[in-house]
Design a protein that fits this description.
about 160 residues; alpha+beta; FAS1 domain; seven-stranded mixed β-sheet; about 45% helix; about 25% strand; signal
Length: about 160
């Protein structure tokens, strides 16, 4: 009977460790989607990619991912300075504004009205005609994973100074 109990405990512990393992599907999806290549490059330059690679069911991340076109619409001085090696802290600040701890479904986001970003500022959530808006920018739900969610943004969110 004791050995059966030990096996049962070992199986339970094994299953627990499986659910806490990183689910790289969120990161793999971002990395393999061409329209997010600028966002992915920024995440890699600032080391924030590790946060997404390490996302799991215990520590999910909701990503509001700006498209390449969103980065292209930035003012020319902002665009060129943002990715310069001397401006990594500013880039990290901007990108952290696009990351929220948790696996936030659209319905939950609309009910909460504000989400705390990893950057520290709150993202204001609005629902207009069924569309989800994040700090004034339309967000389209792209894909859900056990480790988080990806929403597409057509504008880059810029932290308040």
């Amino acid at each position: 009977m004791k050995s059966a109990r030990k096996v049962f405990i070992a199986v339970c512990l094994g299953l627990t460790s499986l659910t806490a393992q990183a689910d790289s599907a969120l990161w793999t999806t971002l990395e393999s989607t061409p329209q997010y290549s600028r966002f992915v490059k920024g995440l890699e330059l600032t080391g924030l990619d590790d946060k997404l690679k390490g996302a799991d069911t215990a520590h999910p991340v909701t990503v509001f991912a700006p498209t390449n076109e969103a980065f292209a619409r930035l003012d020319v001085p902002d665009k060129s300075k943002l990715f310069s090696s001397s401006n990594r802290d500013r880039l990290r600040d901007v990108l952290n504004l696009h990351l929220v701890a948790g696996n936030i479904a659209p319905k939950e986001a609309k009910q909460r009205h504000a989400l705390g970003s990893n950057q520290g500022q709150s993202l204001i959530i609005e629902a207009e005609s069924g569309a989800l808006r994040v700090s004034g920018v339309e967000a389209q739900a792209v894909q859900a994973f056990t480790s988080g969610r990806i929403y597409r943004l057509d504008q880059v969110l810029i932290p308040r100074q």
